[in-house]
Amino acid sequence: MRKLVVAFVVLAGFAGLIGVGAVTALLVGSGGRGAGWSACSAYLGPWGDGAGRGERDAATLNEESIGIVRRIIEIGKQRGLPPRAWQIAIQAGKTESNLRNIHYGDRDSLGIFQMRPSMGWGTPQQITDVDYAINKFYDVLLAVPGWEEMRPGTAAQRVERSAFPLRYHRWEPMAAYLVSVEGDVPGISACDGLPRASVLAAQAIQYAQAQLGKPYVWGAAGPHAFDCSGLTQQAWKAAGVEIPKYSQTQYFQGGVHVPLSQAQPGDLVFWGYGRDPNSIHHVALYLGDNEVLHAPQPGESVEVTKLWDGGELLPTVVRPAADTPQPPSPAPAAEGQR
Protein backbone atom coordinates (compact mmCIF):
# COMPACT_ATOMS: atom_id res chain seq x y z
CA MET A 1 0.00 0.00 0.00
CA ARG A 2 1.21 3.42 -0.81
CA LYS A 3 1.38 5.67 2.21
CA LEU A 4 0.31 9.24 2.54
CA VAL A 5 3.35 11.36 3.13
CA VAL A 6 2.98 14.88 4.41
CA ALA A 7 5.31 17.04 6.42
CA PHE A 8 4.66 19.93 8.71
CA VAL A 9 7.68 22.15 9.20
CA VAL A 10 7.75 23.88 12.58
CA LEU A 11 9.89 26.98 12.32
CA ALA A 12 11.13 29.43 14.90
CA GLY A 13 8.82 32.38 15.17
CA PHE A 14 5.95 30.24 13.82
CA ALA A 15 3.08 32.18 15.32
CA GLY A 16 4.42 35.55 14.33
CA LEU A 17 4.79 34.56 10.69
CA ILE A 18 1.27 33.32 10.18
CA GLY A 19 -1.33 35.42 8.45
CA VAL A 20 -3.95 34.66 5.86
CA GLY A 21 -2.19 32.70 3.13
CA ALA A 22 1.21 32.68 4.83
CA VAL A 23 0.89 29.11 6.04
CA THR A 24 1.77 27.78 2.60
CA ALA A 25 5.32 28.99 3.06
CA LEU A 26 5.63 26.82 6.16
CA LEU A 27 4.12 23.62 4.82
CA VAL A 28 6.12 21.45 2.49
CA GLY A 29 5.84 17.99 0.93
CA SER A 30 8.02 15.04 1.67
CA GLY A 31 10.17 15.18 -1.42
CA GLY A 32 8.26 12.61 -3.40
CA ARG A 33 8.32 9.52 -1.21
CA GLY A 34 5.06 7.65 -1.58
CA ALA A 35 1.80 9.10 -2.84
CA GLY A 36 1.09 12.70 -1.94
CA TRP A 37 -2.41 13.31 -0.66
CA SER A 38 -3.26 15.94 -3.24
CA ALA A 39 -2.75 13.38 -5.98
CA CYS A 40 -5.66 11.26 -4.80
CA SER A 41 -7.97 13.46 -2.77
CA ALA A 42 -9.80 14.43 -5.96
CA TYR A 43 -10.95 10.82 -6.00
CA LEU A 44 -11.98 10.74 -2.34
CA GLY A 45 -12.87 14.32 -1.46
CA PRO A 46 -16.50 15.41 -1.55
CA TRP A 47 -16.15 17.98 -4.31
CA GLY A 48 -13.78 16.30 -6.74
CA ASP A 49 -11.27 19.14 -6.65
CA GLY A 50 -8.63 17.63 -4.42
CA ALA A 51 -5.55 18.35 -6.52
CA GLY A 52 -3.83 21.06 -4.48
CA ARG A 53 -6.94 21.69 -2.41
CA GLY A 54 -5.28 20.75 0.86
CA GLU A 55 -2.64 23.40 0.34
CA ARG A 56 -5.18 25.97 -0.80
CA ASP A 57 -7.47 25.37 2.15
CA ALA A 58 -4.56 25.53 4.59
CA ALA A 59 -3.55 28.88 3.10
CA THR A 60 -6.87 30.40 4.22
CA LEU A 61 -6.34 29.65 7.93
CA ASN A 62 -5.82 32.67 10.16
CA GLU A 63 -3.47 32.99 13.12
CA GLU A 64 -5.97 31.66 15.66
CA SER A 65 -6.71 28.58 13.56
CA ILE A 66 -3.04 27.82 12.97
CA GLY A 67 -2.40 28.11 16.71
CA ILE A 68 -5.18 25.60 17.38
CA VAL A 69 -3.81 23.21 14.75
CA ARG A 70 -0.38 23.48 16.33
CA ARG A 71 -1.83 22.76 19.78
CA ILE A 72 -3.80 19.75 18.48
CA ILE A 73 -0.54 18.30 17.15
CA GLU A 74 1.48 19.17 20.26
CA ILE A 75 -1.02 17.56 22.62
CA GLY A 76 -1.32 14.56 20.33
CA LYS A 77 2.44 14.10 20.44
CA GLN A 78 2.54 14.54 24.23
CA ARG A 79 -0.07 11.80 24.60
CA GLY A 80 1.77 9.50 22.22
CA LEU A 81 -1.09 9.44 19.73
CA PRO A 82 -0.46 8.62 16.06
CA PRO A 83 -0.77 11.23 13.27
CA ARG A 84 -4.15 9.76 12.31
CA ALA A 85 -5.59 11.05 15.60
CA TRP A 86 -4.25 14.56 14.94
CA GLN A 87 -5.80 14.54 11.48
CA ILE A 88 -9.19 13.46 12.84
CA ALA A 89 -9.14 16.25 15.44
CA ILE A 90 -8.20 18.85 12.83
CA GLN A 91 -11.02 17.77 10.52
CA ALA A 92 -13.51 17.85 13.38
CA GLY A 93 -12.38 21.30 14.55
CA LYS A 94 -12.47 22.75 11.06
CA THR A 95 -15.96 21.37 10.47
CA GLU A 96 -17.45 22.41 13.80
CA SER A 97 -15.96 25.86 14.38
CA ASN A 98 -13.63 26.69 11.48
CA LEU A 99 -10.84 25.92 14.00
CA ARG A 100 -11.85 28.76 16.30
CA ASN A 101 -12.51 28.76 20.03
CA ILE A 102 -15.98 30.27 19.80
CA HIS A 103 -18.30 31.02 22.70
CA TYR A 104 -21.57 30.31 20.90
CA GLY A 105 -23.17 27.61 18.76
CA ASP A 106 -26.25 25.47 18.26
CA ARG A 107 -28.13 25.31 21.55
CA ASP A 108 -25.37 25.16 24.21
CA SER A 109 -22.54 24.10 21.89
CA LEU A 110 -19.25 25.86 22.59
CA GLY A 111 -15.59 25.88 21.68
CA ILE A 112 -13.44 24.33 18.96
CA PHE A 113 -15.42 21.10 18.74
CA GLN A 114 -18.82 22.59 19.67
CA MET A 115 -19.05 20.44 22.76
CA ARG A 116 -22.24 20.72 24.83
CA PRO A 117 -22.21 21.01 28.62
CA SER A 118 -25.69 19.46 28.69
CA MET A 119 -24.30 16.33 27.03
CA GLY A 120 -21.58 15.82 29.61
CA TRP A 121 -18.60 17.27 27.75
CA GLY A 122 -17.69 19.59 30.64
CA THR A 123 -18.54 23.01 32.01
CA PRO A 124 -18.65 26.03 29.68
CA GLN A 125 -15.36 27.18 31.17
CA GLN A 126 -13.76 23.81 30.52
CA ILE A 127 -14.86 23.26 26.94
CA THR A 128 -13.78 26.77 25.94
CA ASP A 129 -10.32 26.04 27.32
CA VAL A 130 -8.31 24.96 24.27
CA ASP A 131 -6.19 22.34 26.00
CA TYR A 132 -9.16 20.84 27.85
CA ALA A 133 -11.24 20.63 24.65
CA ILE A 134 -8.45 18.95 22.67
CA ASN A 135 -7.75 16.42 25.42
CA LYS A 136 -11.46 15.71 25.81
CA PHE A 137 -11.79 15.12 22.07
CA TYR A 138 -8.89 12.68 22.17
CA ASP A 139 -10.38 10.91 25.22
CA VAL A 140 -13.64 10.26 23.39
CA LEU A 141 -11.89 9.32 20.15
CA LEU A 142 -9.81 6.67 21.89
CA ALA A 143 -13.03 5.10 23.20
CA VAL A 144 -14.40 4.65 19.65
CA PRO A 145 -13.88 1.00 18.65
CA GLY A 146 -11.70 0.67 15.55
CA TRP A 147 -11.19 4.39 15.04
CA GLU A 148 -7.68 3.81 13.68
CA GLU A 149 -9.08 1.90 10.69
CA MET A 150 -11.83 4.36 9.81
CA ARG A 151 -11.64 7.10 7.25
CA PRO A 152 -10.70 10.18 9.33
CA GLY A 153 -13.99 12.00 8.72
CA THR A 154 -15.94 8.94 9.79
CA ALA A 155 -13.99 8.76 13.04
CA ALA A 156 -14.61 12.48 13.60
CA GLN A 157 -18.34 11.89 13.18
CA ARG A 158 -18.27 9.07 15.75
CA VAL A 159 -16.88 11.54 18.28
CA GLU A 160 -19.12 14.47 17.33
CA ARG A 161 -22.29 12.44 16.62
CA SER A 162 -23.49 15.01 14.12
CA ALA A 163 -26.77 14.89 12.22
CA PHE A 164 -24.71 15.51 9.06
CA PRO A 165 -22.14 12.70 9.15
CA LEU A 166 -20.56 13.16 5.72
CA ARG A 167 -19.53 16.79 6.11
CA TYR A 168 -16.32 15.92 7.97
CA HIS A 169 -14.80 14.51 4.77
CA ARG A 170 -14.72 18.00 3.24
CA TRP A 171 -11.54 18.91 5.12
CA GLU A 172 -9.67 15.63 4.64
CA PRO A 173 -7.05 16.99 2.21
CA MET A 174 -6.38 20.07 4.34
CA ALA A 175 -6.05 18.11 7.58
CA ALA A 176 -3.75 15.58 5.95
CA TYR A 177 -1.64 18.42 4.60
CA LEU A 178 -1.29 19.94 8.06
CA VAL A 179 -0.44 16.72 9.84
CA SER A 180 3.04 16.62 11.30
CA VAL A 181 5.07 13.43 11.12
CA GLU A 182 8.70 12.44 10.90
CA GLY A 183 8.28 9.86 8.19
CA ASP A 184 5.22 8.23 6.68
CA VAL A 185 1.60 8.47 7.77
CA PRO A 186 0.30 4.92 7.43
CA GLY A 187 -3.25 3.79 6.96
CA ILE A 188 -6.20 4.38 4.70
CA SER A 189 -5.51 8.03 3.97
CA ALA A 190 -3.58 6.77 0.96
CA CYS A 191 -5.46 6.22 -2.27
CA ASP A 192 -4.93 2.47 -2.38
CA GLY A 193 -6.40 1.90 1.08
CA LEU A 194 -9.97 2.26 -0.14
CA PRO A 195 -11.86 0.09 -2.62
CA ARG A 196 -11.74 1.45 -6.14
CA ALA A 197 -14.86 3.18 -7.44
CA SER A 198 -15.20 0.76 -10.36
CA VAL A 199 -15.34 -2.26 -8.03
CA LEU A 200 -18.00 -0.72 -5.83
CA ALA A 201 -19.97 0.61 -8.80
CA ALA A 202 -20.17 -2.85 -10.35
CA GLN A 203 -21.67 -4.17 -7.12
CA ALA A 204 -24.18 -1.30 -6.94
CA ILE A 205 -25.23 -1.81 -10.56
CA GLN A 206 -25.60 -5.55 -10.09
CA TYR A 207 -28.01 -4.95 -7.22
CA ALA A 208 -29.99 -2.33 -9.15
CA GLN A 209 -30.33 -4.57 -12.20
CA ALA A 210 -31.86 -7.26 -10.01
CA GLN A 211 -34.66 -4.79 -9.15
CA LEU A 212 -35.78 -4.21 -12.76
CA GLY A 213 -39.55 -4.42 -13.11
CA LYS A 214 -40.32 -3.71 -9.45
CA PRO A 215 -42.93 -0.97 -8.94
CA TYR A 216 -42.28 2.64 -7.99
CA VAL A 217 -43.73 3.48 -4.58
CA TRP A 218 -43.02 6.89 -3.09
CA GLY A 219 -40.75 6.59 -0.04
CA ALA A 220 -40.02 2.89 -0.62
CA ALA A 221 -36.49 1.50 -0.30
CA GLY A 222 -37.08 -2.15 -1.13
CA PRO A 223 -37.15 -4.99 -1.18
CA HIS A 224 -40.40 -5.16 -3.16
CA ALA A 225 -40.75 -1.54 -4.34
CA PHE A 226 -38.62 1.58 -4.64
CA ASP A 227 -38.71 5.28 -5.24
CA CYS A 228 -35.82 6.91 -7.09
CA SER A 229 -33.58 7.67 -4.13
CA GLY A 230 -34.52 4.48 -2.30
CA LEU A 231 -33.20 2.50 -5.26
CA THR A 232 -29.89 4.37 -5.48
CA GLN A 233 -29.41 4.22 -1.72
CA GLN A 234 -29.98 0.48 -1.54
CA ALA A 235 -27.83 -0.17 -4.62
CA TRP A 236 -24.83 1.52 -3.04
CA LYS A 237 -25.61 -0.06 0.34
CA ALA A 238 -25.27 -3.44 -1.39
CA ALA A 239 -21.74 -2.31 -2.32
CA GLY A 240 -21.00 -1.50 1.32
CA VAL A 241 -21.34 2.29 0.96
CA GLU A 242 -23.88 4.22 3.05
CA ILE A 243 -25.44 7.27 1.36
CA PRO A 244 -28.43 9.35 2.53
CA LYS A 245 -32.00 8.48 1.55
CA TYR A 246 -33.30 11.55 -0.26
CA SER A 247 -32.18 12.66 -3.72
CA GLN A 248 -31.25 16.21 -2.74
CA THR A 249 -29.30 14.98 0.27
CA GLN A 250 -27.56 12.40 -1.92
CA TYR A 251 -26.38 15.24 -4.14
CA PHE A 252 -24.97 17.32 -1.29
CA GLN A 253 -23.72 14.53 0.99
CA GLY A 254 -23.47 11.40 -1.14
CA GLY A 255 -19.86 11.53 -2.25
CA VAL A 256 -17.52 13.08 -4.82
CA HIS A 257 -18.82 15.75 -7.21
CA VAL A 258 -17.70 15.05 -10.78
CA PRO A 259 -18.62 16.81 -14.05
CA LEU A 260 -21.37 15.03 -15.99
CA SER A 261 -19.00 14.83 -18.96
CA GLN A 262 -16.76 12.56 -16.83
CA ALA A 263 -19.55 10.31 -15.50
CA GLN A 264 -18.70 6.65 -14.96
CA PRO A 265 -20.96 3.63 -14.36
CA GLY A 266 -22.41 3.74 -10.86
CA ASP A 267 -22.42 7.53 -10.57
CA LEU A 268 -25.61 9.26 -9.42
CA VAL A 269 -27.27 11.51 -12.01
CA PHE A 270 -29.71 14.23 -10.90
CA TRP A 271 -32.53 16.36 -12.27
CA GLY A 272 -33.70 19.65 -10.70
CA TYR A 273 -35.98 22.45 -11.76
CA GLY A 274 -33.87 25.01 -13.59
CA ARG A 275 -30.84 22.74 -13.04
CA ASP A 276 -30.79 24.04 -9.46
CA PRO A 277 -29.30 21.58 -6.91
CA ASN A 278 -31.70 22.97 -4.31
CA SER A 279 -34.61 21.88 -6.51
CA ILE A 280 -33.52 18.30 -7.20
CA HIS A 281 -36.48 15.98 -7.62
CA HIS A 282 -35.04 12.86 -9.26
CA VAL A 283 -31.91 10.69 -9.19
CA ALA A 284 -30.79 7.75 -11.31
CA LEU A 285 -27.85 5.34 -11.51
CA TYR A 286 -25.64 5.93 -14.54
CA LEU A 287 -24.79 2.75 -16.49
CA GLY A 288 -22.51 4.16 -19.18
CA ASP A 289 -23.21 4.52 -22.91
CA ASN A 290 -25.70 7.31 -22.16
CA GLU A 291 -28.02 4.97 -20.21
CA VAL A 292 -29.42 5.18 -16.69
CA LEU A 293 -31.26 2.77 -14.40
CA HIS A 294 -33.93 4.36 -12.22
CA ALA A 295 -37.32 4.14 -10.53
CA PRO A 296 -39.30 6.67 -12.62
CA GLN A 297 -42.59 7.68 -11.00
CA PRO A 298 -45.88 6.28 -9.61
CA GLY A 299 -47.50 3.82 -11.98
CA GLU A 300 -44.16 2.80 -13.53
CA SER A 301 -41.46 0.29 -12.67
CA VAL A 302 -37.68 0.22 -12.27
CA GLU A 303 -36.25 0.43 -15.77
CA VAL A 304 -33.25 1.20 -17.96
CA THR A 305 -33.59 4.17 -20.29
CA LYS A 306 -31.52 6.65 -22.25
CA LEU A 307 -30.22 9.64 -20.34
CA TRP A 308 -32.49 12.61 -20.98
CA ASP A 309 -32.24 16.32 -20.30
CA GLY A 310 -35.49 18.27 -20.60
CA GLY A 311 -33.77 21.37 -19.28
CA GLU A 312 -33.39 19.84 -15.80
CA LEU A 313 -30.34 17.56 -15.98
CA LEU A 314 -27.64 18.78 -13.59
CA PRO A 315 -24.12 19.19 -15.01
CA THR A 316 -22.61 17.43 -11.99
CA VAL A 317 -22.88 13.81 -10.89
CA VAL A 318 -22.01 12.25 -7.53
CA ARG A 319 -19.63 9.33 -7.09
CA PRO A 320 -20.09 7.61 -3.72
CA ALA A 321 -16.85 6.69 -1.94
CA ALA A 322 -16.10 4.04 0.64
CA ASP A 323 -15.41 4.98 4.25
CA THR A 324 -13.53 1.85 5.23
CA PRO A 325 -10.72 -0.14 3.66
CA GLN A 326 -11.16 -3.41 1.90
CA PRO A 327 -10.54 -6.46 4.09
CA PRO A 328 -7.14 -7.97 3.35
CA SER A 329 -7.13 -10.86 0.93
CA PRO A 330 -6.33 -14.14 2.65
CA ALA A 331 -2.83 -15.38 1.98
CA PRO A 332 -2.72 -18.37 -0.35
CA ALA A 333 -2.40 -21.63 1.50
CA ALA A 334 0.88 -23.45 1.33
CA GLU A 335 0.95 -26.57 -0.82
CA GLY A 336 0.80 -28.86 2.20
CA GLN A 337 -2.16 -26.97 3.74
CA ARG A 338 -4.57 -27.22 0.81
TrEMBL record:
Please give the biological process terms from Gene Ontology that the record holds.
proteolysis
Keyword terms of this UniProt record: Hydrolase, Lipoprotein, Protease, Thiol protease
Q: Does the keyword Ligase apply?
A: no
Cite the GO molecular-function annotations of the record: cysteine-type peptidase activity
Q: Which InterPro entries match?
A: NLP_P60_dom, Papain-like_cys_pep_sf, PG_Endopeptidase_C40
Could you tell me which residues belong to the region Disordered?
318-338
Give the transmembrane region(s). Answer: none
Taking every annotated instance into account, which residue ranges of this chain make up the domain NlpC/P60? Answer: 198-325
State the Gene3D superfamilies in the record: endopeptidase domain like (from Nostoc punctiforme) (3.90.1720.10)
A Pfam family recorded for this sequence: NLPC_P60
Entry superkingdom: Bacteria
Q: Family, per the entry?
A: Belongs to the peptidase C40 family.
Q: What is this protein called?
A: C40 family peptidase
